[in-house]
Design a protein that fits this description.
5 strands, five-stranded mixed beta sheet, 222 residues, alpha/beta
Length: 222
């Protein structure tokens, strides 16, 4: 769902055009564009076993359930190559984000010159979080490998990783009781999507924004 400011917003259009221009870049194997996002997933167990699928009937769940806590999901999605990578963590803190950035730099893209990152402007999504997690030399090493572009406030729809989360939510279904099972389901989905090389077909451009979202652009009086 698009959430767009109701009136002129120079801050919004500045970040929006910045992200849209990144999406226009030609593919550079040494400087991949990667969309980063995270979401929470509640772990829910059954108090009564669901009624299985029968001819003409879908699986039915009882309205009562058990709350087994919440997990956080990080995703790194490279839209031009159709690759995505996920991690499940117990929480979402600046330390968790910093560790995911280290994973991105050292495990997923160890041989790249630079990694261009698109993500929302959450308070933990800043290089300063690296200094809270690692020694200064290590924090600096990681920060120099990444180039961060933030989507605007109320503009998370500009992050293509959100599309991947929408697809994943449908795959996971309604109730997953424990973290281990969640990790297994996510690993299966990730491998399936990566093997099919499912890319994103982004078509919304800066020119489109200046026409369709022109009310957001400040009026210039000469």
């Amino acid at each position: 769902m698009w959430c767009i400011p109701p009136k002129e917003d120079a801050e919004f259009v500045c970040h929006m055009e910045d992200v849209l221009e990144v999406y226009k870049r030609a593919f550079n194997p040494q400087n991949p564009v990667v969309c980063i996002d995270e979401t929470s997933r509640q772990l829910i167990g059954e108090k009564r076993m669901p009624m299985p699928v029968e001819p003409g009937k879908i699986e039915r769940y009882d309205y009562e359930y058990k709350r087994n806590g919440v997990c956080n999901l990080f995703i790194a999605f490279e839209p031009l190559t159709g690759k995505r990578y996920l991690q499940v963590t117990d929480q979402r803190t600046c330390i968790d984000w910093a560790n995911f950035m280290k994973y991105l730099v050292d495990v997923l893209y160890p041989d790249k010159d630079k990694i261009t990152i698109i993500m929302d402007n959450l308070n933990i999504h800043k290089p300063s979080s690296l200094y809270k997690a690692f020694k200064p030399e290590e924090a600096r090493r990681i920060s120099e490998k990444i180039e961060i572009h933030h989507t605007p406030k109320h503009g998370s729809w500009l992050n293509m990783a959100e599309i991947e989360f929408s697809v994943l939510t449908r795959h996971l279904g309604r109730r997953i009781p424990e973290k281990q099972l969640l990790q297994q389901k996510i690993a299966f989905w990730q491998e399936l999507r990566n093997n099919k090389t499912v890319k994103a077909k982004w078509q919304f451009t800066t020119n489109d924004a200046r026409i369709k979202l022109r009310k957001l652009y400040p009026s210039i009086i000469n």
